[in-house]
Design a protein that fits this description.
By secondary structure, the chain is α/β, with parallel strands linked by helices. The protein has four domains: about 5-90, Barwin-like endoglucanases; about 100-160, Transferase, Pyrimidine Nucleoside Phosphorylase, Chain C (Transferase, Pyrimidine Nucleoside Phosphorylase, Chain A, domain 3), CATH 1.20.970; about 170-250 and about 265-410, Nucleoside phosphorylase/phosphoribosyltransferase catalytic domain (Pyrimidine Nucleoside Phosphorylase, Chain A, domain 2, 3-Layer(aba) Sandwich), CATH 3.40.1030.10; about 420-500, Pyrimidine nucleoside phosphorylase-like, C-terminal domain (Aldehyde Oxidoreductase, domain 3), CATH 3.90.1170.30. Helix content is about 40%, strand content about 20%. The protein has 18 helices and 18 strands. The protein has helices spanning about 30-35, 75-80, 100-105, 110-125, 130-140, 145-160, 185-195, 215-220, 225-235, 250-265, 270-280, 300-320, 340-350, 360-375, 385-395, 395-410, 435-445, 480-490, and strands at about 5-10, 20-25, 40-45, 50-60, 70, 85-90, 170-175, 200-205, 240-245, 285-295, 320-330, 335-340, 420-425, 430-435, 455-460, 465, 470-475, 495-500. The protein has a six-stranded mixed β-barrel. It has a four-stranded antiparallel β-sheet with strand order 12-15-17-13. A three-stranded parallel β-sheet has the order 7-10-11, sandwiched between helices. β10 (about 285-295), α12 (about 300-320) and β11 form a beta-alpha-beta unit. It is globular and about 75 Å long. Belongs to the thymidine/pyrimidine-nucleoside phosphorylase family. Type 2 subfamily.
Length: about 500
């Protein structure tokens, strides 16, 4: 190859860069020198048929030759590359919308136009992870007012696909999160659709939690559905349980979520935009929002819940959907399992009406399903819970759930992790405090949600009386190293569950 040539041969390096497209070049590569590329440069890669924008990493080793450009797995997939294929390279055009992000960081409000420009550039892959982090930081906390949230939500809907369901009332529900193990959605969808409601449910993967609904459902059935496949499932069964990122509904959401997860940030305004953009894109006309409140939940006070509720309702109204918000107890985990497999097992025990099913998970699911049935006029006010309970106990909800799974690609029974370690009480007394955030972090350290079977299995609830040696919770991990990592952290932070001596 002539050293003055302006092209390189593509080589698949097999590097997982977690959805960010990355290209690797030798520091002494002739293209690097000719184009003036530096580490972290944003580069346009062009083949005869496709082009992408990627972040450059500089290599000082022999893993690639002077004649090659290495691609991460994400870059390889997006470019539809072939081994040895020829590509040319150039500087990506400056991303003009980052000026709006800088303005927001210094207090300038986002307009409909600036919000759309930012979201569109994110959608087109023009933002690096560093630029995405700046955008997320600018929106963090309560950094977005209601008009900005509406603008971002509109933009997120406009840049993706959208379902239309022939003028029917379409329902959805969402929990704002913060409670480990809160996996009511599969149960609610099964009950509601068994009663005739239309619920095209799309869910996100975990952001800062040990599992999202999509992570949990993926243990039991495929959730990566095409737009057409999702429509077929809903038309056949009235509902689905899919990952929103796979059907291109509000496609910027999963891009933003990936960086939010790395930053451990889940801001209020972006949360509203994320939730409602997906509901609108899925065709929902009425949405039920559950806001758990507790000292270690995502929402900690009634005042914060009221503010979020107002923001949700106003944003929904501006975009033409009805949002109904309720609050619930957020003082402790829900169910027993925390992590995809463990939560899936809880869901199945409830749907199968097994004696060991967690009563709190069943109760919360019935409350939410009952509220939806009343909104849909399937039950009179105050009678929704009874209809939901009857539907669950009759087996109709389980039948509907299994039918949805089969249509999505089949059902798989969850399997437990190979490594388990039970933490026991060191004193007798009453369970007085459970730290939601700590328990969630412990499950993540054990490997969840990436390792589906990893997590925490709770054996106690607030108010339970325990004796010395009684199990409090069990850590689940697939490898001894992951289990040891979680146990090391637990040793440094022993008060995940607090026991107070009972005085008579």
């Amino acid at each position: 190859m002539d050293s003055t040539s302006d092209f390189l041969h593509l080589h698949r390096l097999g590097v997982d860069t977690h959805q960010e497209p990355v290209v690797y070049m030798r520091r002494d590569c002739h293209v690097c020198h000719a184009e003036g590329f530096n580490a972290q440069s944003r580069i346009k890669i062009m083949t005869d048929h496709h082009s992408i924008i990627a972040t450059l990493n500089i290599v000082d080793s022999e893993i690639i030759s002077h004649q090659q450009a290495g691609l991460s797995e994400t870059a390889w997939r997006l470019l539809h590359a072939q081994e040895g294929e020829v590509a040319t390279f150039g500087h990506a055009k400056p991303v003009e919308s980052t000026a709006f992000v800088r303005g927001k960081l210094f207090g300038k409000l986002l307009s409909d136009e600036s919000a759309y420009s930012i979201v569109q550039d994110i959608r087109e892959g023009r933002y690096s992870d560093i630029q995405l982090a700046a955008y997320i930081t600018a929106c963090a906390g309560q950094g977005l007012n209601v008009n900005e949230v509406i603008a971002i939500t509109k933009a997120m809907v406009a840049t993706g696909k959208r379902f239309q369901w022939s003028g029917q009332e379409v329902f959805d529900k969402h929990c704002v999160g913060g409670l480990p193990g809160y996996r009511t959605t599969p149960i609610v969808v099964a009950i509601a659709s068994a009663c005739g409601l239309i619920m095209p449910k799309t869910s996100s993967r975990a952001i800062t939690s040990p599992a999202g609904t999509a992570d949990t459902m993926e243990v039991m059935t495929p959730v990566t559905l095409s737009f057409e496949h999702m429509r077929e499932v809903v038309e056949q069964h009235g509902a689905c349980l899919a990952w929103g990122g796979s059907v291109n509904l509000s496609p910027t959401d999963d891009v933003v979520i990936r960086v939010e997860r790395a930053l451990d940030i889940d801001s209020e305004g972006q949360l509203v935009a994320s939730v409602l953009s997906k509901k609108i894109a899925a065709g929902a006309t009425q949405v039920l929002i559950d806001i758990p409140i507790g000292p270690t939940a995502k929402i900690r006070t009634q005042e914060a819940a009221a503010h979020l509720q107002k923001l949700m309702v106003a944003t929904g109204e501006a975009l033409g959907i009805k949002v109904h918000a309720i609050t619930s107890d957020g003082t402790q985990p829900v169910g027993r399992g925390i992590g995809p497999v463990l939560e899936a097992r809880d869901v199945l025990t409830v749907l199968r009406c097994e004696p060991e099913a967690p009563t709190d998970l069943a109760e919360r699911s019935l409350v939410l399903a009952g509220a939806l049935l009343e909104l849909a006029h399937k039950a009179q006010p105050g009678e929704g819970f009874k209809l939901a309970q009857k539907t669950l106990w009759s087996g109709k909800a389980l039948d509907k759930f299994m039918a949805i799974c089969e249509s999505q690609g089949g059902f798989t029974e969850p399997e437990l992790a190979a490594q388990q370690h039970t933490i026991t009480a060191s004193q007798h007394g009453i369970i007085s405090y459970i730290d939601n955030r700590f328990i969630a972090r412990l499950a993540r350290l054990a490997g969840a949600p990436e390792v589906k079977a990893a997590g925490v299995e709770m054996h106690v609830r607030l108010g339970d009386a325990v004796e010395v040696g009684q199990p409090l919770f069990t850590l689940h991990a697939n490898a001894p190293g992951e289990l040891a990592y979680a146990l090391d952290f637990l040793q440094l932070h022993p008060e995940a569950v607090r026991i107070e001596e009972e005085y008579l």
